[in-house]
């Protein structure tokens, strides 16, 4: 029997925004609140510290690392690329392992290892050492983002994911902001303490925050319905979660990954369309991680190292608003395709200014303030993947990781070619390349939206036909009973 995806057809007016659906029972609402308190705060904290640890390379670079390690060429973008390579390589095993290993064990272990290699960076005295550390940090971080979206898709309906993912993803912008504040404070107050530069103290501080959050994950991360963490969840909670997802067509039977899963995905046009969309997203947002804003501030020559890092927090601070706004309107008002479009129209406006470059300084300030709109729809996109690929957990697991891996791997070379450090801060090639990808992202999202609506029509028609057939059959049976009963009674 065809399954009707309820969340695809529900239309809400803006003043009907609700946290729960009308169809959610009191028991389901209690479960949703419990999951919200377990998953969302931990996801936010872990992503927050990850982006402190990821963004701090750019902050350290403008705060003395460049001079202390004698960098003179494209070392910054090379280190960024090595991190990306590590993140891509590290994701590959988890295409298969998400359906085998308990995620509430796996993710905290990786987080703790990430923390130790973050700490190790304070000892770096050469490019080679920093390169090794950045690769390993990328490797241990690799599984986190797809894992969290796999967890979201394991417990929530498709129309519930984006706003929770938005809260989680705001950890990216807050982490980038916090990294700037930590580096600013370290440069101003810890420079030279115990013979260590301020940027080295920053890595020590980041590690001290990271490791306890990793340990916390063992206790509060709920895992998945097939491998639940029983610290806070009961068997009844797991059963309720399975029942409510089954009603909207999500698989409640979770098969392990097999080679047949690959064949099934390869024959699924939706998978390939989502991959193209994800590639355009990753390449349409590399401006946020290229360090262009910080490098521009430093090039002005009027701010101290501490002040550069303070001012560098403005753009990610605005990004928190972008993320929450885009994710909430996706779930509750406009849907994923239009949320992606709105976010990247704003991104495109800023990119056009950066491509032109020879504009008043105030225009450049404005353009850099739009940067984080480019990643504001990330949770929307992966929530969309969860919804579209939700019928099989094996396919969903593999799709989330493979999409992220392939798309991110393209940035390992595109960023190296289009954002060479020697061309900072203008990056004309880089901003032009990102602009083209942002335009393609919008076009692809709209085409995919139309195609998905058309592909769902036969499903709805089939369901209506089956419903009608069942009703007719029941009617005929009822008529027969009416005709037969008097004869029996007579």
Automatic annotation (TrEMBL):
Pfam families: MFS_1. It is a multi-pass membrane protein. Residues 457-490 are annotated as: Disordered. GO terms for molecular function: transmembrane transporter activity. InterPro entries: MFS (IPR011701), MFS_trans_sf (IPR036259). The keyword Membrane applies. Keywords: Membrane, Transmembrane, Transmembrane helix, Transport. It is found in: Membrane. Residues 464-476 have a biased composition (Polar residues). One of its GO terms (cellular component) is membrane. The chain crosses the membrane at residues 136-155, 167-186, 201-221, 271-291, 311-330, 337-357, 363-385, 397-419, 431-452. Belongs to the major facilitator superfamily. Allantoate permease family. This is Major facilitator superfamily domain-containing protein. It comes from Neurospora tetraspora.
């Amino acid at each position: 029997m065809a399954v009707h995806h309820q969340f695809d057809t529900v239309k809400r007016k803006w003043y009907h925004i609700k946290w729960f659906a009308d169809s959610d029972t009191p028991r389901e609402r209690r479960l949703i609140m419990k999951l919200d308190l377990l998953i969302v705060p931990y996801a936010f904290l872990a992503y927050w510290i990850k982006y402190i640890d990821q963004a701090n390379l750019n902050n350290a670079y403008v705060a003395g690392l460049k001079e202390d390690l004698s960098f003179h060429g494209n070392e910054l973008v090379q280190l960024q690329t090595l991190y990306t390579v590590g993140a891509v390589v590290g994701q590959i095993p988890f295409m298969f392992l998400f359906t085998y290993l308990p995620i509430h064990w796996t993710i905290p272990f990786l987080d703790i290892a990430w923390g130790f290699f973050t700490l190790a960076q304070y000892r770096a005295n050469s490019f080679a050492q920093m390169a090794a550390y950045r690769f390993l940090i990328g490797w241990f971080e690799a599984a986190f983002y797809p894992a969290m979206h796999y967890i979201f898709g394991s417990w929530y309906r498709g129309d519930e994911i984006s706003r929770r993912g938005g809260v989680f993803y705001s950890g990216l912008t807050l982490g980038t902001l916090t990294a700037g504040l930590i580096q600013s404070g370290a440069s101003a107050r810890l420079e030279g303490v115990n013979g260590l530069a301020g940027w080295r103290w920053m890595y020590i501080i980041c590690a001290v925050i990271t490791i306890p959050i990793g340990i916390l994950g063992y206790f509060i991360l709920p895992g998945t319905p097939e491998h639940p963490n029983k610290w806070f969840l009961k068997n009844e909670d797991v059963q309720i979660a399975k029942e409510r997802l089954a009603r909207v067509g999500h698989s409640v039977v979770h098969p392990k990954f097999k080679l047949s899963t690959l064949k099934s995905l390869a024959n699924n046009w939706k998978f390939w369309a989502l991959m193209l969309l994800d590639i355009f997203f990753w390449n349409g947002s590399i401006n946020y991680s290229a360090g262009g804003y910080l490098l521009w501030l430093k090039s002005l020559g009027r701010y101290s190292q501490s002040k550069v890092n303070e001012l560098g927090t403005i753009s990610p601070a605005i990004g928190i608003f972008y993320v929450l706004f885009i994710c909430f309107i996706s779930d509750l008002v406009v849907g994923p395709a239009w949320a992606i479009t709105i976010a990247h129209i704003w991104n495109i406006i800023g990119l056009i200014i950066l491509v032109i470059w020879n504009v008043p300084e105030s225009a450049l300030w404005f353009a850099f303030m739009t940067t984080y709109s480019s990643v504001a729809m990330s949770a929307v996109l992966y929530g969309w993947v969860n919804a579209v690929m939700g019928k099989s957990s094996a396919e969903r697991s593999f799709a989330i990781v493979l999409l992220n891996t392939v798309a991110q791997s393209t940035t390992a070379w595109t960023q190296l070619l289009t954002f060479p450090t020697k061309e900072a801060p203008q990056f004309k090639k880089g901003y032009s390349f990102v602009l083209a990808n942002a335009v393609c992202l919008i076009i692809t999202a709209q085409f995919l939206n139309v195609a998905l609506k058309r592909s769902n029509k036969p499903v709805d028609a089939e369901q209506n036909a089956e419903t009608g057939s069942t009703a007719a059959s029941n009617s005929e049976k009822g008529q027969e009973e009416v005709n037969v009963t008097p004869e029996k009674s007579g």
